[in-house]
Amino acid sequence: MFGIAGLLKSSPLWLLVRTNALHSWRRLVAVRSQSRLLTSIIAIFVLGYLVLAFELFYHGMKFVAKFPGLGAVLTERLLYTLFAFLFALLLLSNLVISYTNLFRNRETAFLLTLPVSRQTIFRWKFIESMILASWAFLFLIAPLLVAFGLVRDVPWHFYPLTAFLIGLFIILPGVFGSAAAIVIGRHLDRRNFQFVLLLIALVLLAFVAFWWKANPVDDDLLDKRTLEALDHLLAKTRFTMFPFLPSYWLSSAVLQWAEGITSGALFFASVLLSYTLFFGSIAFTRFGNLFYDTASAVQSRERSGKRFSFSRIAKNSRTPGFLERLTDKIPFLPPDVRALAVKDLRMFWRDTTQWGQSVMFFGLLGAYIINLRNFTHQLTSPFWINAVAFLNLGACAFNLASVTTRFVFPQFSLEGRRLWIIGLAPMGLARVVITKYWLASVLSLLVTLCLVTLSCYLLNMSWSDVLFFGAVVTVMTFALNGLAVGLGVLFPNVKETNPNKIVSGFGGTLCFVLSSVYIIVSLTLLVFGAGGFHDRENWAFIGIFAFVVLSLLIGWLPLKFGLKHLKNFEA
To answer: Least C-beta-crowded within 10 Å: which of 55, 157, 344, 396?
Structure first.
C-alpha cells in the first residue's frame, strides 16, 4: 500500500501535477497580495452569480413543480436536454483546448525534449485540458443541481453521488475531444480532409437550421390534452433520451436517485463508470504514441504547401498577397496601420484554434437566430416581441463579451517579449494598441450587427426598432472592445504564449466580470428606458442617456489608462 503511494508520488506525472498546482496556487496568492480590492470584486461577482443563479433555478423549478403531473415531466425533459447540449459543448471545448495544449503549447514542446515518456506528457496535457474545458461547466450546473435537490427534497447523499457522477461524466468528452484533436492535427494539411470537415460543418448547420423546428400545436389539442400537447412541442428533444448517450446515463442516474429508485440509479451510474474506465484507460495507455507522431507531423509540416491558405504569402516577396491587395483598396489607411492589420489577420488565420472558436461562438448564436422564423408567427403581443428582442440582444452581447475576453484581451500579451522592438519602431506601442482596438471593433461589429439586424427582421420589427437595436449593439461592441484592449495592456502576461492561460489569469477574469456587469446594467437601463413597458418619454431619455454614459466610461477609461500605462511599460 505504502509502496504504491510512494511510487505514485515519485512518478513524473505526479511531479507535473504537483508542480503546476503549486505554481497556480502561488500565482493566486500573488494576485491577492497585489490588489485586494480587485480580488474582492471578483470574489463578490462569483458569489453573486452563484446566489443569483441558485435563486433563479430554485424559483423556476418550484414554479414548474406546482403543475401536477406536468411539472415532473417538464423538469426531467429539461435535465435531459441540458446535459445533452452541455456534453456537445464540452466536446467542442475539449477539442479546441486539447489541440492548443498538445500541438501549440511551449510547455509541451519543452517537455518533449526531456527524458519523460510521451505517454506521461500526454496524460498531463489531457488532465490540464480537461480541467480548463470543464471548470465553467461545473460552475454553471452547481446552482442548478442544488436547486433541483431542494425542490425535490432529496436526502444528503444525493449531492456527493451527483458530484461523483459529474466527475465521471466530464472525462468522456475529454477523451473524445483529445482523440478528435489528434486526428485533426494529423490530417489537417490534406485537402480531402479539409473538404470533409467543411462538408460536415455545412451539414450540421443545415440540420440545425432546417430540421430542428418547433412543432406548432392546434388550439384544440391545447384545450383537451395537456401532456400530449407538451410531448408534441418537445418532439425535437427526444434525441436527448437516446439510451447510448452519456448525458442520458447521467440524467437518469440523477433523476432516479432523487426519486428513491436506488437500483436504477446504481445501474446507470455503473454504466457511466464502466464506459469512463474503458475509454479513460485507452486514452491513458494508447494515445501517447499517437500524440507524439501527430506532434512531430504538426511541427515539421511545411507552411507553404499546396493547400489553400488565406495567410499564404506569394513565392515572390515583391508580389503582394491577398490580404495586402484587400487592404490596399482602403484608401484612408496609412501604410504602417495597414501592415499591422495584415499581420494580425494573418496570425489569427494561421491559428486554427482561434478562428475555430470564433466560428463556434457566432455559429451557435446564428443557428439560434435563424430558427427564430419558426415561431415568430406565434408572437402576436408587442410585449413578447420586445422581450424576445432584448433577450436576443443580451445573448449577442454576452457572446461578444466572451469573444473579446478570449481573443481581444490577450492580443497585447501575445506580442511577447518582442514588444520592446515595437516600442522602438516609428509606429510606437500606443499606435499599435489603437490599431488593434479598431481592427477588433470593426471585425466584431460586422458579425454582431448582422446577427442583431437579422433577429429584428425575423421578429417583424419596424425599421425604427431595427435601427435602435443596431445602434445599441454598435455602442456595446466598441465599449467591450475598449475594455478588453485596455485591461489587456494594464494586465499583460508577455511570458505566456497560450491565449487560454493568459485569459485564465487575473486580468482576463476581471475583464469578463466587468463585461458581464456592464451588459447586465446596460440591459436593465435599456429595458427601463426603451422596453415599451411605459409611455413616459423622460424615463426613456434617462435610461438611454445613462446607457450611453456607462458605455463611454467602460470603453474609454480602461483604454485611456492602458495607453497611459504604455509610457512606463517595460517588456
So the answer is: 157
